[in-house]
Amino acid sequence: MIDIFDNFYKGKRVLITGHTGFKGSWLSIWLHELGAEVTGVALDPYSERDNYVLSGIGNKIKADLRADIRDGKRMKEIFLKYQPEIVFHLAAQPLVRLSYEIPAETYDTNVMGTINIMEAIRNTDSVKVAVMITTDKCYENKEQQEGYKETDAFGGYDPYSSSKGACEIAISSWRRSFFNPADYGKRHHVTISSVRAGNVIGGGDWALDRIIPDCIRALEVGRPIDIRSPRAVRPWEHVLEPLSGYMLLAQKMWMHPTEYCEGWNFGPEAESVSTVWEVATEVVKNYGCGELRDLSVPDALHEASLLMLNIDKVKKRLGWRPRLDMKSCIQLVVDWYKRYQTEDVYCLCIEEINKFVRG
Ligand SMILES: NC(=O)c1ccc[n+]([C@@H]2O[C@H](COP(=O)([O-])OP(=O)(O)OC[C@H]3O[C@@H](n4cnc5c(N)ncnc54)[C@H](O)[C@@H]3O)[C@@H](O)[C@H]2O)c1
Q1: How far is the C-alpha of 117 from the C-alpha of 281, rounded, in Å?
Q2: How confident is the model at residue 299, as a pLDDT?
Q3: What pLDDT, in 10s, does the model give residues 189-213?
Q4: Measured CA distances, 162 to 62, 95, 169 (Å)
Q5: Are the C-beta atoms of residues 16 and 27 closer than 8 Å to each other?
Q6: Measured in angstroms, how far is the CA atom of residue 101 from the centroid of ligand 1?
């Protein structure tokens, strides 16, 4: 595999929460291929078709653990036993619509789960770098045309978005109280950041009420694709885009612990920001068949209709920028869904990572 991180991850002990999920499975595969010793902590995968299951990554990494991040004592035990050096915290209840059904559980997992991970970090001397994954929805949504900047206020209308806004406030508090850069090397040796991606798409995601899985479920049985919010605008990006950003950030944080411990937006270029309808149209084109049905009935559940991220800061200070435009992103995504039933999914993922890094 082409290593864009200059051998940095080889032999590093990395703990990933949420490795059985969509983004976590891709991150585990990538880090494993780069030679990291990966420990994964999560609940069971949702279905037999998840990328985690089909790729078999659970059998390849150093430790594949089932544990609930709401159990703070268990998190501390796991951290002490596996002695991670780098932590990527992805585990969450990540769905807006589900958060209206289970708001308290969403808060428990997202906010208390994040605090439990930070407490486990505080309790384990081996941890040097922590990257906490929140979301673009952590900003107070003003339906504004400009992208949200890292300095904008946190907020959130629905329980999911507001729980992630609350995570951001907790991370900032723990950073100032326990992992303060001014005390680095004296009272602690941890550097902690938070990262916000856009609407992440890629192979192996089967979550409910997400556009790509909705499209593929319909296409596989020859049904028309029902589009609930055709005009909603989102910052779409391939899963490997934010993951490449998280990994680059962790590397920089390791080398310069006091310089990068803050919040970062890893979104797409403005040209990739498009409507749900445009994305679904591109999916149908690449799949080779299918039709869309506009189902934009008034919806009782509030969801933001306009959401964009400003990525000037990551470009300038990290030298990171998205590699794929919207069309090549959808091409890569649909490629996975066209091939997963007949091919070795681990090899398919490696092929996609190589294609992505080659540009
Ligand atoms: N997918 C997106 O578009 C997107 C965009 C921005 C941010 N995010 C964030 O990225 C992260 C990963 O999202 P995803 O799309 O891969 O989600 P996912 O639902 O596919 O995966 C979630 C993971 O968290 C684990 N998990 C959930 N509750 C847990 C608990 N109580 N204890 C232990 N593990 C638990 C699951 O087992 C799974 O491994 C989340 O924090 C999400 O909020 C996702």
Answers
A1: 40
A2: 64
A3: 999 999 999 899 999 999 988 999 9
A4: 34, 12, 11
A5: yes
A6: 17
For the ranges 37-46, 64-73, 152-161, 306-315, the lowest mean pLDDT is seen at 306-315
SS3 41: strand
The amino acid that residue 11 corresponds to is G
Atom of ligand 1 nearest to the CA of 50: 20
Strand 225-227, strand 199-201: pairing? unpaired
- What value, to the nearest 5°, has the Cα angle with vertex 129 and ends 165 and 3? 110
- Matching residue, tokens 């391939």: 238
Question: Tokens 């950030």 identify what position?
Answer: 249
Ligand 1 site, residue 68, Cβ cutoff 6 A: yes
Q: Cβ(197) to ligand 1 under 6 A?
A: yes
Q: Which pLDDT band holds residue 352 (cuts at 50, 70, 90)?
A: very high
Spatial contact of 114 and 107, defined as CB atoms under 8 Å apart: no
Ligand 1 pocket, mutate which of 15, 20, 23, 25 (most atoms under 8 A from CB): 23
With residue 38 as reference, give the H or E element that holds it. Answer: strand 37-42
pLDDT in tens, 34-80: 999 999 999 999 999 999 999 999 999 999 999 999 999 999 999 99
Q: How far is the CA of 338 from the centre of ligand 1 (A)?
A: 24
For residue 201 the two structure tokens come to 């798409």
- How remote is the CA of residue 95 from the centroid of ligand 1, in Å? 9
**With 90 as the cut, is the pLDDT of residue 229 above it?**
no
Ligand 1: centre distance to CA 19 (Å): 9
Binning pLDDT at 50, 70 and 90, where does residue 296 land?
confident
Q: Is the distance from the beta carbon of residue 311 to the nearest atom of ligand 1 less than 6 Å?
A: no
Helix then strand count (H, E) for the chain reads: 13, 12
